[in-house]
Amino acid sequence: TSNFKNPNLCCLSSPTRLAHSVKVKAQESEVSVAVDAFTQFKHLLLPITDRNPYLSEGTRQAAATTAALAKKYGADITVVVIDDKSKESHPEHETQLGSIRWHLSEGGFQEFKLLEKLGEGSKPTAIIGEVADDLNLDLVVLSMEAIHSKHVDANLLAEFIPCPVLLLPL
């Protein structure tokens, strides 16, 4: 006799184990396509949108990543410093430029192109897109911090940026 009140339920005398094993091997062509994608990036853009003269954690991470990618794949770097205020109203501007130089040189990168878009009144996302388009850049490296801090509008990235964007988590 059974203690079950529902006649549709069944009692198993021993536990049954179901196991499935699936092995998936990436196709070499798929892996090489992913690796080849980075070798195509010969000119990288590092936008600086924060006002921290010593660079925020996210910007430092983006600088280190940009330098590492450029060094590994033989790419050039362009840095664009974007601020809605003019250079004159930003007393620690030179300190910030020194920080940018230092962080890129720590990554083994001594030479890079520097653009300053200060006091122009345009949205940073539009400026990043304009620079990427004008210089025919291959990749923009940006920290999610720039989006979280509202310096860069994530909704406009796809509209204004004509090349891939590498968004780094915080």
From TrEMBL:
Which Gene3D superfamilies does this entry report, sorted A to Z? 3.40.50.12370
Q: Which domain of life is it from?
A: Eukaryota
**Stated name of the protein:** Universal stress protein
Q: Which organism is it from?
A: Chenopodium quinoa
